[in-house]
Design goal:
5-stranded mixed β-sheet, 5 domains, about 60% helix, Four Helix Bundle (Hemerythrin (Met), subunit A), Bifunctional glutamine synthetase adenylyltransferase/adenylyl-removing enzyme, about 950 residues, alpha/beta, 41 helices
């Protein structure tokens, strides 16, 4: 512990005298865990503690006996402490007195423990917040009861049931109180609300509810804020309520919701991030907070928050300069407010999507920013360390004399006292540490929220392109300028720009939206001029711009993140398919912020973890929200795969793997959601006379899904089976037959996948490969599936089985299917008959789906024409069915690539043929993938892939005859 400097020696002498007097009253002997030396330090550090000890030694003795200072200050402890004072309340005057004495006791122990570092920052903030909660709640409860005796009980519609019920006030705590981060000497920002309009009953006179709660609010403020001989409890600030000081003191839920929806401003969103029900009707308060959530947390990524916070910070900075507040550790450069701005910017931007950011405590949110890869760990660690240091300094400043201040002291005596409180030998050592923290905070704030370099670049782009965008140049001059910087179709590009600017949607934009558009377009044109084919890319990017004209926060996102704009231009330049995806779902722009994750999609395990995290806080029964999250999850990760394929960081085989993994992860969760929903209504299907928590249900993937060959627009070929007893029933309150249960389960799964929502369709589902096709049951028992496959299935259905595999559902059911598939594929077959049937089916497909002879433009259909992909697939399926009885190992895979490799290893297909067919297959499929990203079909020039096609056809003739 640092030595006491000479300047504080006289104070130490005074403290010693006070302690001698206290010792006579036995006050400081009550808690043996606190030494006299500790008491000396505490009273030396804080004039507030010294004044209380000197003025109220009797009270102090009572306090120490009831609640030793060595014990932590907990919420339960604060509540128990208030009960001692409440017992003495007889009228409003005594309520005021007891509240103040209660505050003095609690504040004494909070400052004492904080200054001696018996408490860490979290305990100090939580204790100060609990003191406020208990004081507000205790005062409100007493005053409400008293008000009901005078004016009657207010009645109105319950916010949930709508029934007429007695009503109570709800007190919202804002700012640090709402965040459970209150200072040791802070004012409290409050908002008063009540559920609904109505009137009082059973009183001497009738009041409408707003009058009642306004009067109650006025009395509550007086009980807390009024300065009496005993001091005050908390300074109360009501200016954050709707309409500020000119607004009603208490508003109904409906009025509050209407205000924030219609008139809520950016700074009010910022304030609402920390709002919390601190007193009153907690149940009704939860309803209110839920209704206000959409105002605070937007469903889309809202980068306008950066701009708003930057404007707020600029306003504060002007005030700092005007009032000379550079030494203010809250408002000055690198101060507490800048850390709060950084954190709350991400909350406002991403909180609607990432619910883990919908917390109030800053120190809990910083690690989440690191977990979500929004900030590096080094940055969050430095911000957290600075926050703890600065808040401790703030408490040191305020606890010295119980004054609300964030100004560093300018006298040597107070500087020495603050340095000691913070554990430093002298002021210069403390100030060096303080400066280091503030410099780091200021740097991170500038990097994240306020970049002068970016603003300079934007200004330069604006000057260069504004005339073109605003149509201030003659068309031919504008075209010449566009051509000079590389636009390959300058006149057409200029026309596109003017068409957008003059469109009805653009003309109807609000002032702020138009300002953002006028800022963005020059920056976009600058970015386009640096890329390939800027005219073609402009047409693609303008689809997105048109789509977001009513949600211009997306334009702010791109303005705030030049790297994201660069990736947008690059991806749209290389793929019109990606451009269309972004235009249809602008929310995907968020993925452009992190180049590392954009071009390196996650593994299947990481996909599962990501989806689990996203759905963690969404109840399974909230089907609509579940469906929205699933759709966004799929689109997000498919975009990453497409970007990676274009960038060359994923080869074809991996592209299909990733797209298949995405589908599998989605299907797994869809089964869980649908199963859970049905179980909640009907219970579990009985399985062998016992309850099972497993679903006994499996989803079988056929075609591209089964073959691990999904493309960007592939549908899902699915078959549903179950292994439960078809004659059994479920064990819930509303039992149904197992067969009915599984049919409904299948229907629900198809609905979740197929349904069109505002975010589009999850997957198109094709169920025609199930037994008996469209006329068959949606879900089959495994035994019925087996019977059909053995007795009634066509050869082409056994071909399809070669590419089938279990993709989601019960592990036991999936294993049972795999065993049956193996058994079915290994049946001995007449090879000549099999060959004839396979060839017959192939000819039908070629006639119906291949290129028609005599077409004006001769083309080659990569999949269906002679020498195409389907020829390879049919050969492989024929060989699988013909030779699995002799080589059972052939059935272990469902994808063509590994099946060809196994056919080569088994000697069924010459190794050279297996390898060359594999290469040709990859070449053709790669082309289809690339063309899909260009919005092109599977038809190419007639002479394309001549050597591959000739080779495939020669193998076909050798194998199929």
């Amino acid at each position: 512990m640092p030595a006491v400097p000479e300047s504080l020696e006289p104070d130490l002498h005074k403290v010693s005298k006070i302690l001698d007097a206290m010792a006579l009253n036995q006050a400081i002997n009550q808690d043996t865990a606190i030494t006299r030396a500790a008491w000396e330090r505490a009273l030396l550090y804080s004039l507030f503690l010294r004044e209380v000890a000197e003025r109220d030694p009797e009270y102090l003795s009572e306090w120490l006996e009831a609640w030793p200072l060595s014990e932590p200050t907990t919420t339960d402890g604060v509540s128990a402490c208030w009960q001692r004072y409440l017992a003495r309340v007889t009228d409003e005057h005594s309520l005021h007195r007891e509240l103040r004495l209660f505050r003095r006791e609690c504040m004494f122990r909070i400052v004492f423990r904080d200054f001696l570092r018996l408490a860490d920052l979290n305990e100090t903030m939580a204790a100060a917040s609990s003191l406020a909660d208990v004081a507000i709640g205790g005062a409100l409860a007493w005053l409400h009861e008293d008000a009901c005796e005078q004016w009657g009980t207010p009645y109105g519609a319950d916010p949930v049931t709508g029934k007429e019920t007695p009503q109570k006030m709800i007190v919202l705590g804002m700012g640090k109180l709402g965040g459970f981060e209150l200072n040791v000497s802070s004012d409290i920002d409050l908002i008063f609300a009540f559920p609904s309009n109505g009137e009082t009953r059973d009183g001497r006179r009738t009041l409408d509810n707003q009058q009642f709660f306004t009067r109650l609010g006025q009395r509550l403020i007086q009980a807390l804020d009024q300065l009496t001989a005993d001091g005050f409890v908390f300074r109360v600030d009501m200016r954050l309520r709707p309409y500020g000081q000119s607004g009603a003191l208490a508003l109904s839920f409906a009025a509050l919701e209407a205000y924030y929806q219609d008139q809520g401003r950016d700074w009010e969103r910022y304030a609402m991030v920390k709002a919390r029900v601190v007193a009153g009707d907690q149940k009704a308060g939860r309803v209110l907070m839920e209704s206000l959530r959409p105002f605070v947390y937007r469903k889309y990524i809202d980068f306008s928050a950066f701009e708003s916070l930057r404007n707020m910070k600029a306003m504060i900075s002007r005030e700092v300069r005007r009032k000379g507040l550079e030494n203010n550790i809250k408002l000055g450069s690198g101060g507490i407010r800048e850390i709060e701005f950084v954190v709350q910017a991400f909350q406002l931007i991403r909180g609607g999507r990432d619910r883990e950011l919908q917390q109030r405590e800053l120190l809990k949110i910083l690690p989440e920013l690191m977990n979500l890869e929004l900030l590096p760990k080094a940055v969050t660690d430095e911000l957290a360390a600075a926050y703890v240091f600065l808040r401790n300094v703030e408490h040191g400043l305020q606890g010295m004399a119980d004054q609300q201040t964030q100004e560093l002291p300018d006298t040597a005596l107070e500087q020495a006292r603050l340095a000691l409180i913070m554990g430093f030998e002298d002021w210069s050592a403390f100030h060096r540490e303080l400066d280091d923290h503030r410099k780091r905070v200021a740097k991170h704030f500038a990097d994240i929220i306020a970049s002068d370099d970016e603003e300079a670049e934007e200004q330069e782009a604006s000057e260069r392109w504004q005339e073109i965008w605003l149509g201030e140049l003659e068309p031919d001059i504008a075209a010449e300028r566009l051509e000079s910087v590389g636009f390959e179709q300058p006149s057409e590009s200029f026309e596109l720009l003017q068409k957008l600017r003059q469109s009805r949607t653009a003309q109807m934009m609000q002032t702020e939206g138009r300002r953002r558009l006028n800022r963005f377009m020059p920056v976009l044109l600058e970015a386009l001029s640096d890329g390939e084919a800027p005219s073609e890319t402009l047409g693609r990017v303008l689809q997105l711009v048109e789509a977001v004209l009513r949600r211009t926060a997306y334009l702010v996102l791109l303005l705030e993140n030049p790297e994201a704009l660069k990736q947008l231009v690059r991806l749209c330049s290389e793929s019109p398919w990606i451009a269309r995806q972004l235009a249809e779902t602008p929310l995907l722009l968020d993925e452009l912020l992190n180049k590392e994750s954009l071009y390196h999609p996650p593994s299947k395990q990481e996909l599962e973890d990501d989806l689990r995290q996203q759905l963690l806080r969404i109840p399974l029964e909230d089907l609509e929200e579940q469906m929205e999250v699933l759709r966004h999850f799929k689109k997000t990760h498919v975009l990453r795969v497409a970007a990676s394929e274009i960038r060359g960081t994923l080869p074809l085989m991996k592209v299909s793997d990733y797209l298949t993994w995405i589908a599998e992860v989605v299907l797994d969760h869809v089964v869980d959601v649908a199963f859970s929903n049905l179980v909640s209504r009907h219970g579990y299907p009985r399985h062998e006379d016992s309850q099972s928590s497993d679903s006994d249900f499996a989803v079988i993937g056929y075609g591209k899904l089964g073959g691990i060959e999904l493309g960007y627009t592939s549908d899902l070929d699915l078959v549903f089976i179950h292994t439960a007893d078809p004659q059994g029933t479920t064990n819930g309150e509303k039992p149904i037959d197992n067969a009915v249960f599984y049919t409904r389960l299948g229907q629900r799964i198809v609905h979740i996948l197929n349904a069109q929502t505002p975010s589009g369709q999850l997957y198109e589902v094709d169920m025609r490969l199930r037994p008996s096709g469209n006329s068959g049951l949606l879900v089959s028992s495994l035994s019925a599936f087996e019977k059909y496959q053995r007795e009634d299935a066509w050869t082409w259905e056994h071909q399809a089985l070669a590419r089938a595999r279990g993709v989601a559902g019960s592990k036991d059911a999936l294993a049972a299917f795999e065993a049956l598939r193996h058994d079915l594929l290994c049946q001995p077959r007449d090879r000549k008959k099999l060959r004839d049937e396979v060839m017959e089916m192939r000819e039908k497909m070629r006639e119906n789906l291949g290129s028609k002879a005599g077409e004006t433009t001769e083309v080659f259909h990569i999949k269906h024409d002679e020498g195409g992909i389907v020829d390879i697939e049919f050969m492989v399926q024929y060989l699988m069915l013909a030779y699995s009885a002799e080589h059972p190992e052939l059935t272990q895979w469902s994808d063509n690539i590994r099946q060809m490799e196994e056919l080569g290893r088994a000697g069924v297909l010459p190794t050279e043929d297996a390898e060359k067919l594999r290469e040709a297959y990859i070449t053709l499929r790669s082309t289809i993938h690339r063309r899909a990203l260009q919005n092109l079909n599977s038809q190419v020039e007639r002479d394309a892939f001549a050597s591959e096609r000739a080779y495939i056809w020669s193998v076909w003739q050798r194998v199929m005859g």
